[in-house]
Design brief:
Endonuclease III, domain 1, globular, single chain, mainly alpha, 10 helices, two-stranded parallel sheet, 2 strands
């Protein structure tokens, strides 16, 4: 019997693996939360499959998403990243990664972990939505607006409300699997 999945993942094996194993699973580890934040910011204006196909290249290029290292990147390192064909070579997004790493660490200083900060917006518990089909799922909500504004006020870049809503979906802060999807009850 064929598994019922969210329609957005289509039949690409990379998309299917991401949907089946990662999307919507609650993430509490700061390193992984930073990885998703960076990947979502690079995804802005592009398709998620483009980012998934380059994910390993991003890991290599950005020191396995080590925010402590990234916060100290020199102009030379940034220049070399802009020459790396394995990633998205957008100067604003590369620079924002360094900026966001710095502010990510500021949040850790203030809250003890980025996880405590970000999960505080949902009272430490994932929001479980009840969508029958993908068309019902919004691109943003008042909550993603609130988080986006807070991050921007703290100095983060490329964290618009749509990026933040996708981030919330990816990290399991919200469960937007459609009700018929086999992952809906699992996450």
């Amino acid at each position: 019997m064929k598994k019922i999945r969210c329609t957005w993942c289509g039949d690409d094996p990379l998309y299917l693996a991401y949907h089946d194993n990662e999307w919507g699973v609650p993430v509490y580890d700061d390193q992984t939360l930073f990885e998703f934040l960076i990947l979502e910011t690079f995804q802005a204006g592009l398709s998620w499959i483009t980012i998934l196909k380059k994910r390993e290249n991003f890991r290599k290029a950005f020191d396995n998403f080590d925010y402590k290292k990234i916060a100290t990147y020199s102009d030379g390192k940034i220049s070399s990243l802009l020459q790396d064909a394995g990633i998205i070579r957008n100067k604003l997004k590369v620079n924002s990664t360094v900026t966001n790493a710095h502010y990510f660490m500021e949040i850790i200083k203030e809250f003890g972990s980025f996880s405590s900060y970000i999960w505080g917006f949902v009272n430490e518990k994932p929001i479980k939505n009840n969508y029958k089909n993908q068309a019902e799922c919004p691109a943003n909500t008042p909550l993603s607006d609130k988080i986006s504004n807070d991050l921007k006020n703290r100095g983060f870049k490329f964290v618009g409300t749509t990026v933040i809503y996708a981030y919330m979906q990816a990290t399991g802060m919200i469960n937007d699997h459609i009700e018929a999807c086999f992952r809906y009850q699992e996450v």
